[in-house]
Design brief:
Elements lengths: L1 H11 L32 H4 L1 H39 L9 H36 L10 H14 L36 H13 L6 H8 L2 H4 L1 H9 L6 H11 L1 H24 L9 H12 L12 H29 L3 H38 L4 H32 L2 H61 L1
């Protein structure tokens, strides 16, 4: 309260000398204050007290999380409406009908709501930046990078098919109704030019760019960001909680689930986009079943060649699918390698049993070497044929080779067994040994100190004894005299 009254008193002083913290009319000096806000602005509780700042920061984080969820739901709703409109028109309803205009109106309305939610999200983000950096003017947070990011995000979210509003009636210049053509990729009449068809096709495909909101929702709703222990330990280790870190945590905890969800979603989305691109040409890839097959063999980098895209849009979709397939295959190989790798206990059991088996084979090989040496010595001492002598020499060399090979194999196995886990275990053993040595050293010091004390006592006893003997001899000498 005293601090608030003091700030209010300083702000109410509007004298030319006093507002800058200089000498007033009475000659008394006041403290110099450098305001962060413009003159006439009252400081809010956010800048005043840290408790209010922490409370408002918590509320802003919750608002950001809620707005991000709503924005993702609105983006998915717009994409679903676009897909529904492309599949139903002109099969169920005709172009230019009230149903077509209604669904297009809903798509535009969801796009407007999405833009409002994006603006509200960045407004909360700017307020959070102001609280974190203890600033007042919001223009400090509006850097060129932030402005460029917001503009690009609004541009991406604003993309939706709008060609239907240009010629909603579907009439040509003479006022005649055109013939309906079911081969058009979207709900458009045959009187529209091919350029309009390509533009609406491109706008419909670019609506999938709204799915960038998934990574933001995963980041804001992850347990890593919500856990206070994660944040405290991460701040001590200079770890930035970005989507890359959250993705790494998910891949380490749930690798199979994460890859499966991503692959299935990408497979269905790419198949529908390929069907949307190829449906205009009335080819085999215009069907959903053939599109699913083509995307699957392209994603798996097989490429049988039985089906191929015919349009430029379809070729671009297949090219992107192949690139994503290579990346996902590499991640899948890494995950399978990690799953098939032996853990600590399994490695110890496996290496221990392998060592026992190789040790048995080494003993057998050593016994064979000794046996062949004895047989060769016996053939040398006795009169055997030279063929039998060469046979035993050959067997001796083979036994020596097998023995050396097994020794080398055992050495390699022990090198493989000495991994970082074993090194850490050895480090723990050395720490225990050093602790035991320290305790033994302290006990030895105590014993040496006790021995020194006993030696001092013996020295004093010897001195007393010598003094007593000297006195006794002196008295004896006096008596003798």
């Amino acid at each position: 309260m005293e601090m608030t009254a003091r700030f209010a008193q300083l702000e109410t002083m509007v004298d030319g000398k006093n507002c800058d913290g200089l000498v007033n009319h009475n000659g008394e000096t006041t403290e110099i204050r450098v305001p962060l806000s413009h003159m006439g602005k009252r400081m809010s509780p956010i800048e005043g007290l840290n408790l209010y700042r922490l409370r408002d920061r918590k509320f802003l984080l919750e608002d950001k999380r809620r707005l991000c969820a709503w924005a993702l739901g609105t983006a998915l709703l717009g994409i679903l409406l676009m897909v529904l409109h492309a599949e139903l028109c002109p099969v169920v309803y005709q172009p230019g009908s009230i149903y077509a205009l209604s669904i297009n109106g809903l798509i535009s309305f969801s796009t407007g709501c999405l833009l409002i939610l994006i603006i509200a999200f960045h407004y909360k983000d700017i307020r959070l930046f102001i609280i974190d950096h203890n600033q007042v003017d919001w223009r400090i947070a509006m850097t060129s990078y932030r402005v460029l990011g917001i503009s690009l995000e609004l541009m991406v979210c604003a993309i939706h098919p709008v060609v239907i509003y240009l010629r909603p009636d579907g009439e040509d210049k003479l006022g005649r109704k055109p013939e309906q053509n079911s081969s058009t990729p979207l709900c458009l009449s045959s009187s529209h030019r091919e350029v309009m068809l390509d533009v609406e096709l491109l706008l419909s495909a670019l609506m999938f760019l709204r799915l960038y909101l998934v990574h933001r929702a995963v980041l804001l709703h992850s347990k890593v960001l919500l856990s206070a222990s994660y944040r405290s330990i991460g701040s001590l280790n200079n770890i930035n909680f970005t989507f890359r870190f959250v993705l790494k945590v998910l891949m380490n905890k749930y690798p199979a689930r994460t890859l499966l969800v991503f692959i299935m979603f990408f497979w269905l989305s790419a198949s529908w986009m390929l069907r949307l691109c190829e449906r205009e040409k009335q080819v085999d890839t215009g069907g959903m079943d053939t599109a699913l097959w083509l995307i699957a063999i392209t994603f798996l980098t097989v490429g049988y060649g039985d089906v191929s895209p015919h349009t430029s849009c379809g070729k671009v979709v297949c090219l992107f699918t192949g690139v994503m397939g290579v990346a996902c295959t590499a991640m899948l190989v890494a995950v399978m390698t990690k799953k098939l790798a032996l853990n600590k206990g399994e490695k110890h059991v496996h290496f221990f049993m392998m060592d026992i088996q190789i040790s048995k084979r080494i003993r057998h090989a050593a016994a064979n070497v000794l046996r062949e040496c004895w047989l060769l010595h016996r053939t040398t001492q006795t009169k055997y044929t030279s063929g039998e002598h060469r046979h035993h020499q050959r067997c001796l060399l083979e036994a020596i080779r097998v023995f050396r090979h097994l020794r080398l194999k055992q050495r390699k196995l022990r090198d493989y067994a000495s991994e970082m886990v074993d090194l850490s275990k050895m480090q723990m053993i050395m720490c225990d040994l050093s602790a035991n040595w320290n305790s033994s050293y302290h006990e030895l010091e105590q014993r040496i100190i006790s021995m020194e004390q006993k030696l001092d006592e013996l020295r004093r006893s010897f001195q007393n004894t010598s003094e007593l003997l000297t006195q006794a001899l002196h008295h004896r000498r006096l008596d003798y005299r």
